[in-house]
Amino acid sequence: MNKPDAIRQPLGITVATFAAIMALVMVRSITVPYPAETALTADMPLGALIDSLFHNTVVANAAGAALALLNAILLSGIIVRYSVSPVRTYLPITLYAMTAFGLCVPFGSVSAMLATLLLLVSTNRMIDSFKRSYQFGNVFKSAFFVGMIPMLYAPATLLLPIIPITLVLYRRTLRETITALTGAVLPTIICSVFWWMAGRPWSHICTCLWEGMTTSTLPSLATFAADAPLGLKIYSALCALLTIASIATIIARITTIRTRAKKIYLHFIWLAALCAAMLMLPGSDIAAIAITAVPLSALISAFFTNYRGWLSFAVYLVMLSALTVINLLPLL
Questions:
Q1: Is the peptide bond before 219 cis (omega within 30 degrees of 0)?
Q2: Fewer Cβ atoms within 10 A, N terminus or C terminus of the chain?
Q3: Which long-range contacts (CB under 8 A, 24 or more apart) does 187-190 make?
Q4: Gyration radius of the chain's alpha carbons
Q5: Neighbouring residues of 31: CB distance < 8 A, sequence distance ≥ 6
Q6: 259 and 78 in contact (C-beta within 8 Å)?
Q7: What is the spatial distance between Cα 76 and Cα 38, in angstroms, rounded to a whole number?
């Protein structure tokens, strides 16, 4: 008899599970939304401009769901394309839905989902730069996309250190570093010029970044966490424990992991650390959870890869059951 294996699920079952999770959380968020979901607004001018194009709730939810699927596919594509896992798996698709939307649904701000997409595209470009030849194009695009994220969501400014970290991690040269730093500051310069031409002060973007990071939103992420039902707190604790267990597993087996996969795991560990710092900012709201889900789902997949069989399958079922319960109970 074959042992149950969460990591070896066929693509069809994985996509069906993703669709079921998204349907459940969207029905809950539309029928019984949390205050943090209804009050979600962009804190940057560009983000507000994008969100104004999706003022209709149905259109915003449709766009958010489409971006969620695209983000999940891109994340799984990174894991599969670069052989991060020793086993070909599509589990990150489901894990992304669990970590990004199990607690809340940030579809009220399409720009928040676009910020997650930019992070994934940037990550893919930087990983692709791990080659012997010069990779000016890849490092420029990666840094540019990271630099764009704070233009949509101010607390994501804390993710900018991932640029020098990954440049060192993937052994890029000084000239490539200068190219990357140029790409990182370019979005801020472009947005500053644009809003200056629109009549705003030259420092308008920098002021918005500072206020977006330091000014508490209503309701803030801290308020959402404090007022969350017990089930949400237990589920978030489970995700945190799985992340810690996954990081410990990766570190314990780091010498047996192939070079590229090792660097990608370290990339995601650093990214998770920066996301943890972002979550602690006064200006963070539930949009930060969707961004943090990128490194978390990639790292948690390592737990299921290394502990296959009944243990990992039981943990997987517990996560699915907990997600179902905490989103189904408000509907009853």
A1: yes
A2: N
A3: 187/144, 187/147, 187/148, 187/150, 187/151, 188/147, 188/150, 188/151
A4: 19
A5: 330, 331
A6: no
A7: 30
Burial class (CB in 10 A: 0-12, 13-18, 19+), 198: exposed
| Cα four-point dihedral sign 279, 284, 289, 291 | negative
d(CA 62, CA 7): 29
Which residue's entry shows tokens 């970590």? 99
Q: Where are the domains of the chain?
A: 6-331
Half-sphere exposure in the Cβ direction for 277 (13 Å, CA): 12
Rounded average pLDDT per 10-residue block, the chain, 332 residues = 73 92 91 83 88 84 91 93 86 93 86 93 93 90 96 94 95 93 95 92 92 78 79 90 93 90 95 94 89 94 85 90 90 76
Cβ atoms within 10 Å, residue 41: 14
